[in-house]
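FIELD: query
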Amino acid sequence: MRMPDRNQTVLDTRENRLVAVYFRLSLPVVLSSVVTILYNLADTYFIAQTNNALLVAGVSVCAPIFMILMAFGNIFGQGGSSLISRLLGQGRTEEAGRVSAFCFWISLVAGAVIGGLLLVVRDPFLVLLGSSTDTLPYAREYGTVMLAASPLVVVSFIHMNLLRCEGMAGISMAGSCLGAAVNMILDPLLIPSMGASGAAVASVTGYLCTDLFLLCVVLFRSRVLSVRPVLTVGKAYLREILAIGVTAAITNIAGSLCTMLINQRLLFYGDDKIAAMGIVLKVTMIVQMILVGFSFGGIPLFGYLSGAGERRKIRTLMMFCMRFLVIIALIMTALVCLAAGPVLHLITPDPAIVETGIPMLRWQAAGSAFAGIVMLSTCICQATGRALPALVLSLSRQGILFAVVLLFLSFLAGYRGILCSQCASDVLSTLLVIPIMRNG
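FIELD: result
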């Protein structure tokens, strides 16, 4: 009988440990991502119960506002996370603490600036997002509150990301859960009397609770992170934060631009189509955010391995994650396509919106396996400091490539072309992954 190769046994054990660490880091991120979905779905559900399609459409066109604020949070949340993970891999804890403090304070400043600027151009901006004359009043109510509270939203993404570098992914998730619980409690209390502004107030209050909880964790439990007044870091560190963070932010900004383009294209077919797409995008976020969680959850580990020079381990872990994400995406796609009607019925009682939304939902979910591959590859590039390849991938499936595909297919096939544009963009974006990851 052939005895097992000792070296192979050691390799298998190391791979199993890597996978175990990956899941320990990523599962809380997935749960936190699901909680983020609940933030959005709670608003959508209680607003949809009003049977006011204009209200649903008005709030739906404001979705890019949240994505823009998330983008600025991710500049310093994901950019800082990537750098801090590599610093910890090199044993430089003092410098990691200084970087974390800088990311916290600069995100508050960035949130105040972007919120103030968008408030100045609020109405033209909402029209650009896809508001019609009928839906603008509702969009104005929701958008005003969200923009006024921009610093609270932006800063929530800082410690949510940075705590994972220190192995506290579960606590980060608990902060998200707290905010979501507050939001869901307040929604049915505020929306009936305050409408769109009530939904925004509930969301903002949830973010405030998340911010305070995570701040307490950093102050009393973290051994590395800091919130001491630090508004500058060295130029080299700032470049590294921005190189990765801006790439991560572009993903969110590109997503908001894509939503804006879809709304502008659908506006020709009526506000009910925008209302249906708004609900569909929230539902498909369930699939997308789970994939995002399993992709972004591994960033601290990939970053640590990169800092320690473990290229073979990075390759091994990457191949496992690719296979795992594709399987998960295919299962979720099948479930969403089969249950499209019942799922939409759970959110809105309007049969017309449900009927319109079913093909939308199926097309939006169809390319999820390809989207997962692109997301994971982008995250690996971010974690290992490969800013340019990460930027290229960020500008593909929900960026320049998507915009080109949307415009081409809408011209070629009209309404049906709009519906299948995201799936087509996901497939084409995957072709970029092969040369980028092969040369990594």
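FIELD: remark
The CA atoms of residues 104 and 158 lie 6 Å apart.
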